[in-house]
Design a protein that fits this description.
Radius of gyration: 20 Å
CATH topology: Rossmann fold
Strand order of the largest sheet: 3-2-1-4-5-6-7
Largest sheet: 7 strands, parallel
Helix content: 40-55%
Structural class: alpha/beta
Shape: globular
Strand content: 5-15%
CATH class: Alpha Beta
Oligomer: single chain
CATH superfamily: NAD(P)-binding Rossmann-like Domain
Number of domains: 1
Number of helices: 10
Number of strands: 7
């Protein structure tokens, strides 16, 4: 989706961190922006920081509340008209040994990171398809979806599911004018560490209380993280380029390669293929959107190389 001017974006978790960075970038590209967030204090400060006037709408939203999600989308359409870009960005995190995780830990993180994304798609995708002007859905996943590591089971599982959603939806909806992208950032200067402040009381039973204390006392590494403005511009670039995977940090290259190599090596190539099976279910054996993404990224890399050499 290249022509963004005067179109409308709806961004969950849009009042701080990554969401606010994306809002800044899209606003700068001439869009009208609705920022939806569970915290009113963050919404108030975000509106002041964006300085977008009538081109910004702030709505309070708990992404796990489906009725509230619909109301927020209604409010955005009432003010701006048609919605063109949905950024499912709201997220929370807990990390630590899997055996310490309670049902409440799983339900809270999955409810927001995966359930909130589902709620966004079910609520907004039909609205984008209905107006027929095309659109874009960006779902914030994580490099934890592509390079999962021990101690992040709940978080990485949800983010991997979000990434798979975009991989599945991309070939289904691109022909209908809606591009789908998985945004997989590394560490970003955000408030995700404070997400527990909005954890529902009925999901307060956590097995990670001690782990959270130890992590909090382990030092401040914020200076090593990318800024919200950097990642916001990267998402804008990914939208303009129709990228399936919008990635940020080059430090993950080895991990991404190794995962691909490991899964490739595990394919049982010593077994003979069944031609009838392969022909009958050909649609299962490769995703054309991923094939196209290889060519797209090669073209983008060539353009960057040429630009650096100029």
């Amino acid at each position: 989706m290249q022509n963004l001017a005067d179109k409308t974006a709806f961004i969950t978790g849009g009042a701080s961190g990554i969401g606010l960075g994306i809002a800044k970038a899209l606003l700068g590209a001439g869009m009208k922006v609705t920022i939806a967030d569970i915290r009113q204090d963050h919404l108030d400060s975000a509106v002041a920081e964006l300085e977008g006037g009538d081109r910004v709408l702030a709505v309070q939203l708990d992404v796990t509340n489906r009725a509230q999600f619909a109301q927020a989308a209604d409010a955005a359409e009432a003010k701006f008209g048609k919605l063109h870009i949905l950024v499912n960005n709201a997220g929370v995190a807990v990390v630590g040994p899997t055996d310490l995780a309670t049902f409440a830990d799983w339900d809270w993180v999955m409810g927001v990171n995966l359930g909130g994304t589902v709620n966004g798609i079910v609520t907004v995708l039909p609205r984008i398809l209905a107006h027929g002007e095309g659109g874009h859905i960006v779902c914030t996943a994580s490099m934890s979806a592509l390079v999962p590591v021990g101690g992040t089971t709940i978080y990485s599982s949800g983010k991997a599911a979000v990434t798979a959603m975009m991989e599945c939806m991309r070939p289904e909806y691109e022909s209908r004018g809606v591009i789908c992208s998985a945004f997989c950032p590394g560490a970003v200067q955000s408030n995700i560490a404070d997400a527990a402040k909005t954890r529902p009381a009925d999901l307060a039973d956590t097995g990670y209380a001690e782990a959270d204390k130890r992590r909090a006392s382990g030092g401040n590494f914020m200076h090593l993280y990318q800024t919200k403005e950097q990642v916001g511009q990267r998402v804008l670039e990914g939208i303009l380029n129709d990228e399936l995977y919008i990635l940020t940090h080059s430090e993950f290259l080895t991990g991404v390669k190794e995962r691909g190599e490991a899964t490739t090596a595990a394919v049982q190539t010593h077994l003979p293929e069944n031609p009838e099976y392969k022909e009958t279910f050909a649609m299962l054996f490769r995703n054309p959107a991923i094939t196209q993404e290889i060519a797209r990224q090669q073209k983008l890399q060539a353009a960057r190389t040429a630009g650096d050499a100029a």
